[in-house]
Amino acid sequence: MDFTTIVQDIDALNEKYCEGCFVKQQLRKDRGKAAAHRFCIESCTIGEQLQFLGQELLKTSKRA
């Protein structure tokens, strides 16, 4: 994968699933921003995909 494709994939996932996520909004109300962010990183399947793409992005930047 190249840099541009990875960034486009990250943007697409973020727009499709993360913006307007009701789980994240509710967690922010109930437990705060940090707890909502922790849920996204540790428990959300989309968060896992974003982490994977982030690692791939780091690999492409190391090659250049």
Number of strands: 0
Distance between the termini: 13 Å
Mean pLDDT: 94
Rg calc = 13 Å
**Low-pLDDT ranges:** none
- What's the helix-strand series? HHHH
Number of helices: 4
Could you tell me the strand content as a percent range? under 5%
**Into which percent range does the helicity of residues fall?**
over 70%
Number of domains: 1
Task: Report the major sheet.
Answer: none
Tell me the overall shape: elongated
What would you call the structural class? Answer: mainly alpha
Description:
The chain is mainly alpha-helical and 64 residues long. It has one domain (3-63). The chain contains four helices and no strands. It has helices spanning 3-18, 22-31, 33-42, 45-63. The longest helix is centred in the last third of the chain and has 19 residues, at 45-63. The two termini are 13 Å apart. The mean pLDDT is 94.
Describe the secondary-structure layout.
Layout: H1 3-18, H2 22-31, H3 33-42, H4 45-63
Summarize the model shown:
The chain has 64 residues and is mainly α.
Task: Give descriptors for this structure.
single chain, 64 residues, mainly alpha, 4 helices, zinc, Zinc-finger domain-containing protein, zinc-finger
